[in-house]
């Protein structure tokens, strides 16, 4: 079984080199794949990578 890499808001902002505010804006407009766990947003690195690939096609 492949482990799932979960990232926080700070992690994903650093990974994508955008501000936290940008991440929150994308979340508000359902533009980025994410899940809310116990009131906190989490991002699967694998899904983010696929999402980025789809944006560039």
Explain this structure:
- This protein has one domain (6-55).
- It contains 3 helices and 3 strands.
- A hairpin with a 2-residue loop joins strand 2 and strand 3.
- It has helices at 9-16, 20-28, 45-55, and strands at 6-7, 35-37, 40-44.
- The mean pLDDT is 93.
What would the keywords be for this entry?
single chain; 57 residues; alpha+beta; three-stranded antiparallel sheet; globular; 49% helix
- Uncertain runs are none
**Given the structure, what is the number of helices?**
3
Strand tally: 3
Compute the number of structural domains.
Answer: 1
Q: Strands across the major sheet, in which order?
A: 1-3-2
Q: From N to C, what is the helix and strand string?
A: EHHEEH
Please report the distance between the alpha carbons of the first and last residues. Answer: 29 Å
Helical residue percent? 40-55%
Radius of gyration: 11 Å
The biggest sheet amounts to: 3 strands, antiparallel
Q: How would you sum up the global shape?
A: globular
Classify the secondary structure makeup into a structural class.
alpha+beta
The chain-level mean pLDDT equals: 93
Percent of sequence in beta strands? 15-25%
